[in-house]
Design a protein that fits this description.
Chain lengths: 345, 370
């Protein structure tokens, strides 16, 4: 018996070691090639400085698109737009998703460097955490164009195109306040606490709401997720039976809250606010279940990023302003009918 | 005869203490109920109990599947992803399956949707079992791989989208999915009924069928089990299949609960299921664990998490407390095991001593009589 246990343990350890060795080998491999191609790219970068027009002659003709989570309709739209636009301009694309994990992001940046990508379209994983990764790619001569979120430092990426979350949240909060009327009691569903946007949106909501004497009964983290939003909402309906409104950091959590309210028979008369402007939220707004959502012009922002990237690769001209903020649009029953796939026609 | 009586007496005397230790999960559950009902007047309301039990039910069903695997000394990390995948399959079929290379769309009836989704769960579970038993890949590794594969398929099928048109249409003959799966016969949600059903079936399987004895034997002492003719590969494959089937069931329940099928469904559920199993007193080394304990474990985790939300404890503390409770529960379990082992050792010692004395006595008596 003990022999067999030992054998099993040995097998597990061996498997683990083999895996670790394999990974180490992989890591070593990509590191080597990374530094190789890094050196190669540096020379092209120098040449670029020498004669700007030749910048377009990038051998791989590949654009690396690095996004957050394609299972979320919002980032899905971002990826689809980036790929479609880049391919329309004649580039090939690779797509990866880091799931807001800076470490994974780092690996994808390494991969992009070692495969000699022409440019990187990046939705960064965290403002502070991503500075190093963007710097590494830039040092290797690969221009980085950021969409959706910013990094803590300027002067590294060629462009940082972000939607103005603070402005958008204020718009949404105003519409929600109007719906609330004389009601004052509400709860909040907060996004992933390690994501900057969760804090920015919440702060902007409260900047509008708090001075008006509203009373937040409870705040729960639901990690941008519909299922978690529903479960937390079900419990808050129990613990705070008087709630009359819900502000959610994104549409998915708001949609979960709507399901919970519907099951409890409390959807009527409760004001729910979302953010992002995805198609499910649009339908909820049209059905009168959600007060409003805020459209992040992610499709337009991504298009802009790809255009600026193309200009840079062909003419060597970087955008005049690195930080570009695009205003969000309030989606109410009036304009919701024109919303499709994060684009308002 | 006379040698066994004092031991029996002794074991009856310590029964209470042992019961307290063995029932520690139940005691923990009672503590949670008492503490939270003191802190929140809403905790013990019927509405809230039903909601919390519904939350518990999904984890409990997964945990029972996980228990079968753990009894064998394995682990199934893929259940969360399989939940997501089978849910997505259900949503996909309800929205209509575009048959490749043709323009036609198939709308399977609701019963077929449910069965196909369950079968998908069972199939992915079976692959786990096959890889573990035939290819001899460590369960941790095989199911870790499946965790990614199943999630990947869920994403491929949905293309990252969420299916929301689950109501079906009368003319297509596929309506009523939500009415069936989200129904609440006698005021009790379907998920809770399913938990009861799965628990009863698993208890019968473990306690009344040869399969159960094989399973406990194969996990407790694989060498001996193999030598005594337990069909190890059959047992090893079937438990993963059953775990996958449980995950498929939870996938359907999850879709009905959310009224949407999202490829992210069930993320990290495997960890809660493992927590329920170990809190319920199962040993990850295999051979030890019960359905009853696992259900109680699921209630401990579920009521704790929901109670913390009801009381309004900050999210960060919720995580800390949940983690601490898991570790404490298992630490207690280890302590109990050591206690039991030393007690058993002592018992056998006294037993041996007594029987030796008795033989000596009998021998001397025999001598004297003869």
């Amino acid at each position: 018996m003990s022999g067999n246990r030992f054998g099993r343990m040995l097998a597990v350890t061996a498997a683990g070691t083999a895996l670790a060795l394999g990974l180490a080998a992989c890591g070593g491999g990509s590191d080597d090639s990374a530094s190789d191609s890094g050196a190669a790219d540096e020379t092209t970068a120098e040449e670029t400085v020498a004669e700007e027009a030749s910048a377009s002659e990038c051998e791989s003709n590949t654009i690396a698109v690095i996004t957050v989570d394609p299972a979320n309709p919002y980032w899905k739209a971002e990826v689809d737009t980036a790929v479609a636009e880049a391919e329309a301009l004649g580039y090939q694309t690779t797509v990866n998703a880091h799931g807001n994990d800076p470490d994974q992001q780092n690996q994808f940046i390494d991969a992009a460097i070692s495969s000699g990508a022409c440019a990187i379209i990046l939705d960064p994983a965290g403002a502070d955490e991503s500075v190093g990764a963007v710097q590494k790619a830039t040092d290797a001569g690969i221009p980085v164009f950021q969409v959706n979120a910013e990094i803590a430092e300027q002067g590294i990426a060629k462009a940082q195109i972000v939607s103005n979350n603070a402005q958008g949240a204020a718009l949404g909060a105003e519409a929600w306040v109007e719906c609330m009327g004389d009601n004052r009691d509400y709860v909040e569903l907060f996004g992933n606490p390690t994501d900057n946007n969760a804090g920015i949106r919440s702060t902007s909501y409260h900047e509008v709401i708090d001075p008006l004497g509203f009373n937040m009964l409870q705040q729960e983290v639901a990690n941008w997720d519909r299922q978690e939003g529903k479960q937390k909402m079900e419990l808050m309906i129990q613990s705070q039976p008087d709630l009359q409104g819900v502000i959610a950091g994104n549409d998915e959590m708001a949609l979960g809250a709507i399901e919970a309210l519907r099951d409890a028979g409390k959807l009527e008369g409760t004001c729910v606010l979302g953010f992002d402007g995805n198609d499910d939220a649009r339908d909820a707004v049209l059905a009168g279940e959600m007060v409003a959502t805020v459209l992040q012009p992610i499709v337009n922002g991504t298009k802009l990023a790809v255009e600026q990237m193309h200009t840079y690769l062909t003419t060597g001209e970087a955008p005049a302003e690195e930080k570009q903020s695009i205003d969000c649009i309030l989606i109410t029953p009036e304009n919701a009918g024109n919303l499709e796939g994060f684009t308002l026609s | 005869m006379s040698a066994t009586t004092p031991v029996e007496k002794k074991s009856r005397r310590i029964d209470w203490g042992q019961l307290a230790v063995e029932g520690r999960a139940l005691i923990a559950l009672l503590l949670i109920v008492v503490i939270f009902s003191a802190l929140s007047s809403n905790f013990l309301t019927p509405d809230n109990l039903i909601i919390m039990t519904r939350h518990v039910a999904m984890n409990a069903i997964l945990a029972i599947g996980m228990l079968l695997v753990v009894l064998n000394g394995g682990i199934d990390l893929s259940v969360g992803s399989v939940v997501g995948l089978s849910g997505v399959i259900a949503g996909w079929l309800l929205e209509g399956w575009r048959i490749p290379f043709t323009d036609s769309v198939a709308y399977p009836p609701v019963w077929a949707v449910i069965i196909i989704s369950l079968m998908v769960g069972a199939f992915f579970g079976w692959i786990n079992g096959f890889v573990v038993t035939r290819w001899r890949v460590a369960p941790f590794v095989a199911t870790l791989g499946m965790l990614f594969v199943a999630r990947g398929f869920a994403l491929l099928i949905t293309d990252g989208q969420t299916f929301v048109n689950l109501r079906g249409e009368p003319e297509l003959g596929n309506e009523g999915f939500l009415d069936i799966v989200f129904a609440a016969p006698l005021g009790i949600p379907m998920a809770v009924w399913m938990m009861v059903l799965v628990a009863v079936l698993a208890s019968i399987l473990l306690n009344r069928r040869p399969f159960g004895r094989w399973l406990y034997a194969s996990g407790g002492n694989p060498q001996a089990a193999k030598l005594s003719g337990v069909p190890m590969k059959k047992v090893g494959t079937r438990i993963y299949l059953l775990s996958g089937l449980c995950a498929g069931l939870v996938g359907i329940l999850l879709v009905a609960d959310l009224k949407a099928a999202t490829p992210r469904g069930g993320e990290l559920y495997e960890l809660n299921a493992i927590a329920a199993v170990v809190i319920g007193g199962a040993s990850l080394a295999g051979g030890r664990g019960t359905v009853r304990g696992t259900i109680i474990g699921a209630f401990v985790i579920g009521f704790l998490v929901d109670g913390l939300i009801l009381v309004g404890v900050s999210f960060f503390w919720q995580q800390v407390i949940k983690g601490a409770v898991i570790v404490l529960a298992v630490a207690l379990d280890q302590w109990q095991q050591r206690l039991k082992e030393s007690r058993e050792a002592k018992q056998t010692q006294t037993q041996m001593l007594q029987s030796r004395q008795q033989t000596a006595h009998a021998v001397s008596e025999g001598r004297s009589t003869s």
